[in-house]
UniProtKB/TrEMBL annotation:
GO terms for molecular function: magnesium ion binding; xanthine phosphoribosyltransferase activity. 5-phospho-alpha-D-ribose 1-diphosphate binds at R48, G49, D104, D105, L106, V107, D108, T109, G110, R111, T112. It is found in: Cell membrane. It is an enzyme of class 2 (transferase). GMP binds at D108, T109, G110, R111, T112, W150, I151. Pathway: Purine metabolism; GMP biosynthesis via salvage pathway; GMP from guanine: step 1/1; Purine metabolism; XMP biosynthesis via salvage pathway; XMP from xanthine: step 1/1. Xanthine binds at D108, I151. Belongs to the purine/pyrimidine phosphoribosyltransferase family. XGPT subfamily. This is Xanthine-guanine phosphoribosyltransferase. It is a peripheral membrane protein. GO terms for cellular component: plasma membrane. It catalyses: IMP + diphosphate = hypoxanthine + 5-phospho-alpha-D-ribose 1-diphosphate; XMP + diphosphate = xanthine + 5-phospho-alpha-D-ribose 1-diphosphate; GMP + diphosphate = guanine + 5-phospho-alpha-D-ribose 1-diphosphate. CDD domains: PRTases_typeI.
């Protein structure tokens, strides 16, 4: 599969690394919310990729109100127009998403965040990883990778045997 990629490079992220990078995201967001003590009101994960980072961020920042918005943009690596399949509760989102942290695993072209931003312009948008084309759509992120890199997440991978360089 990987040799059919239009992407030059692969960036393989382990569970351990996504955990550490999501914690680093939480650290950056801590005390930057609009509430007393810089608190955030709620976390909203963009499913499905945003769910693990959102869980880690909400745990670190002690945010108990967690909701989801379901957006589908890719069929494997083929991009399609993003569509909202499920909305978060209006109660969670309040006035245009004020005080809400919207979390995704990455921003690539920015089209997913552009759509969600148009719905909740007052929310704060955070991703763990960012590519240059979509970086302007995200308020806070941790690590930037080049546009021609495909990020492989641990939920899409499995450990497997590799031949030694010199064969057998
Ligand atoms: O910045 P963009 O070019 O819009 O791409 C980024 C989005 O694409 C992926 O989601 P995908 O639609 O593949 O769904 P998934 O999270 O359920 O895997 C990824 O998790 C982001 O949500
Ligand atoms: O680099 C990526 N990795 C995984 N999913 C994605 N969706 C858009 N870009 C990517
Ligand atoms: Mg996604």
């Amino acid at each position: 599969m990987t040799d059919r990629l239009p992407h030059e490079k692969g960036f393989h992220v382990s569970w351990d690394q996504i955990h550490r990078d999501s914690r680093a995201l939480a650290w950056r967001l801590d005390k930057h919310g609009p509430g007393a003590d810089g608190a955030w009101r709620a976390v909203v994960a963009i499913t499905r990729g945003g769910m693990a980072p959102a869980m880690i961020v909400s745990r670190e920042l002690d945010i108990r109100t967690v909701d989801t918005i379901s957006v589908k943009s890719y069929n494997w690596q083929d991009q399609t127009a993003p569509r909202v399949i499920k909305n978060p509760s209006p109660e969670t989102m309040g006035e245009g998403g004020e005080g809400v942290l919207i979390v995704d695993d990455l921003v690539d072209t920015g089209r997913t965040l552009e759509l969600v931003r148009s719905l909740y312009p007052r929310a704060h948008f955070a991703t763990v990883y960012a590519k240059p084309e979509g970086r302007g759509m995200v308020d806070t992120f941790v690590t930037e990778v080049s546009q021609d890199t495909w990020i492989f997440f641990p939920w899409d991978m499995a450990l497997q045997y590799v031949e030694p360089y010199r064969g057998r």
